[in-house]
Amino acid sequence: MKLGVTILIITVFFTILLSIIICKSVHNDGNALPKYDERQRVIRGRGYMYAFYTTLIIYCVIPFVIKGDTKKFLGDMLFFGPALIGILIHISYCVWQNAYVELNTEFKRCVAVILSTSLFNLFIGLTSLTSGKMVENDKLQVTALSLAVGALGTIIVIEMFIKRMIDKRGDVDEESEA
What we know:
The chain is built from six helices and two strands, in the order αααααββα. By secondary structure, the protein is mainly α. The chain is globular and about 55 Å long.
């Protein structure tokens, strides 16, 4: 077996192991699986539907809107971009409908994991951008995906904080009316 394949297998194994550890640390009960109530499940299902159809529409429109040199420049981002937009739509819908954070999750830990992952991806992307390795042979490289994922995570964290502030302000307003 070649060294590269061995390194890939070890990396995948450690990534899965790290993901399980992070999931267990985020949940209050030590379980790696999320727990949602019925309302959250319905909202998340609707969010998946909106994300799916949006992604499908974007994939269908791309051939008619993006031509020649732009297609060559975007490269892999033509595949990943619509998927990331779909993910953003799903998570944004769930955040604004109070169905994103699981019942057994501590909010601060969840935000910390998302934010640290986003900042790490932004660091990788910005390092590539400043070193001039983001574009080679007039084509975006895979590191552009790190920049996009980092931006996506940052947007999600900002949305979660805005929603949290709105909810807290609503709680204060309800208490003052009573």
